[in-house]
Amino acid sequence: MKFTCYLRLRMHNRWVYAGKTHDIPWNYRAIIKETSGWVLEEECHSRKVSDLLPLIEAGLKSIKEKKGPTSNLTKIYDKEMLETVQFFYESLLIEFKKYPYTELYGYSTNKDKEPAS
Fold first, then answer.
1. Neighbours of 73 (CB within 10 A)
2. From CA 109, how far away is CA 26, in angstroms rounded?
3. Under DSSP, is residue 29 helix (H, G, I), strand (E, B) or coil?
4. pLDDT value of residue 112
5. Three-state DSSP state, 9
6. Contact 23/92 with Cβ under 8 angstroms?
7. Separation between Cα atoms, residue 48 and residue 9, nearest integer Å
8. Tally of CA atoms within 13 A in the half-sphere of 50 that contains its CB
9. DSSP calls for 31-82
10. Would you give per-residue pLDDT tens digits along the chain (117 residues)?
11. What is the rounded distance in angstroms from the CA atom of residue 22 to the CA atom of residue 78?
């Protein structure tokens, strides 16, 4: 199971998609909440990029600062998990800055198909 998200913008009564799709394993949601305060929801949801930007920046800063051997994060989560979340944050930040007026639409893939928007 994973969380999938992408950027979109409503134009002329249609959704226009920007950038690429971003996936993160569903079981990584605890570290995302702990480092950024962003709660990944199982149901479909969307949020403005401008609202998520400070959370993602804080999460990336938190991971970069707490990757040392004495960090609580490294005691709870393995190195691969921290690197995966860091990459997820970094790739989202690139697109957030590239497409600042979009919204991020996300859902978990435990459903049979992608939810209707």
1. 18
2. 9
3. helix
4. 45
5. strand
6. no
7. 10
8. 4
9. HHHHHH-----SS-EEEEHHHHHHHHHHHHHHHHHT-STT-HHHHHS-HHHH
10. 999 999 999 999 999 999 999 999 999 999 999 999 999 988 778 999 999 999 999 999 999 887 655 577 878 888 899 999 999 999 999 999 999 999 999 999 875 445 444
11. 21
Beta bridge partners of 3: 24, 108
Q: Identify whether the C-beta of residue 92 lies closer than 8 Å to the C-beta of residue 22.
A: yes
In the chain, the N- to C-terminal Cα span, in Å, equals: 20
Q: Which of 13, 5, 25, 4 is nearest to 85 (CA)?
A: 25
Please state the length of the chain: 117
- Classify 114 as helix, strand or coil: coil
Residue 102: CB partners within 8 Å, gap ≥ 6? Answer: 7, 8, 9, 18, 49
